[in-house]
Protein 1
Amino acid sequence: MIFNKDGTITTVYQEKISLTTFLKNLNEGYPKLQNDNLILNLFTFNDLTAGDVLEFLNISNTHRSRGKSFVIVTDKVTYEETPEEIIVAPTLQEARDIIEMEEIERDLGF
C-alpha cells in the first residue's frame, strides 16, 4: 500500500492489485491510519462497481464513528449509487473539500 500523508489527511492507494487484496491490506494497516482522515484513491480499479464500493462499508462506518472522515475517490461509481454511509467523490480535490467541510461541521458540533 502507498500512503501519502498531508496534515490530518492520509491518501491510500495501491497499483496492480485486486480489490480484495487492497481491502485486506487496508484492514491490516488500519491501526496506523485510524487517527487520520482517509481518502481511498481507487482510480487504478477500472472495473469498479457499486457492489465493490460496498465492501468498504464496515471500515467506513468504524472510521466515521471515531469522528474521522472516510472518502472513496473513483469516477466509476457515483455517490447516487451508494448508500449515504459511504462517501464517494470523483476527484481527489473534491475528497479534500468534503473532508474540510466535515471537519468544520465537527468543530461546530453538528
Note: The two ends are 33 Å apart (CA to CA).
Protein 2
Amino acid sequence: MNVTIKDIARLAGVSHTTVARALNGQPGVSQETRARILELARRLRYSSNALARGLVTRRSQSIGLLVPDMANPFYVQVAKGIEKVAVDAHCSLVVCNSDHRQEKEIEYVRFLREKQVDGMLVVPLQKEKQHFVDLWLDKFPLVFIDRFFPDLPVECVVSDNYGGAKQAVEHLVQLGYRRIAFLVGTRGGYAAEERLRAYHDVLQAAGLPLHEEYVLETRGGYADGYRRAQDLLRLDPLPDAVLAANDVVALGVMRYFTEQRVRIPADIALVGFDDIDFAGMLPVPLTTVRQHPLEIGEKAAQILLDLIEGRRERQLTVQPVVFAAELVVRQSCGAAGKVKNHRALAPCTPGREEHDS
C-alpha cells in the first residue's frame, strides 16, 4: 500500500497542507517540523506522484533554461548555479540550446511552454522579442540572463560588461599598446554594445584613433576566434593587442597565432573575457576579465522561483541586477615597448584548415 501525504501528516501530528509545504520546499514550515516530516517521508519510502501533485497545484516543479551556446563554459557555470537553486527547491531543470539561431530560440520557447514548465530563464539573442512579449503579456514567470531588452520590463541578471571591458582596454593602454583590435560579440546585443562602448570611451580618453577595421564581429565560439585571427593578420598595420569577446574566442586566436608563429605577447598581446577554468592553465596564461557565472545563475534562479511562488511582484519598471567584473592579469600581455610589427613572421595563409568548435 502506497504511503500518502495524509499518512505522514497523521504520524507527524500536523496538517496535510504543512506536509505538502515541507515536501515541496515552500515557506511557512519551521525548520524543526520540516526536518521531522522529511525524515518520516524517507523512512516510509514516500514517493510523490508528480502528475497528481501538478493537477492540484497547477505546477510542474520544473523550470526551463535557454542559452545560445551550451559549449561555452560560461553558460555551463550559469547552468550549475541555476541547478543548485532548483535542486534545493525540488525543481527539475530543462536545458535547451538555441545555437545562436533565432528560429531555434522561438521554437524552444514554444517547446518549454508545451512542457508546462513553471518559468523560464533565457539568454536572449536579442534579434526578435515578440515571443518574449507574449510570455510577459501572459504573466508567465521569465528572467533574462546576460542580456535583456531595455523596453521590456523583465527581470534580468547581468555582469558589469562596461566596467569589465573598460578595465581591460585601460590596462592595454597603460602598458603602451596603441593599435588595439576588438573581437566583439554579436552587434546589437546588450553585452557586446556595452563592451564596445567602453572600448570607444577608453580610446577616446587616451587620444587614440578609432579604426573601425580593428573591430570585428564574432558569434563567440572557438572557430570564430580562429577565423577572425586570420582577418587580424591581414590588417595593415597589424594590431599590437587584441581584446576577445570571451576566453573561448581568445583560445581560437591563440591557436591560429601559434600556427603562424605569432608570439603572445611579444608580437601581439591578447586579453579574454570570462576567466573560465583553464584560462590560467594555457601555455601562455591568459589575461582576462573575470565574471561570476555561478553566482549569476543562482541569483537568476532565485528571482525566478520568487516570481513563480508569488514572493516577488511583477514590476513595470525593472533595473537589472549587476554583478561586478574584474580584470585578472596574467602573462598574455607584456610591455608594449618590446612589441614590434612582425608581419614577416605572421603571414596570413588563406586556405588553411579551419578548426570548428
Note: The longest helix spans residues 293-309.
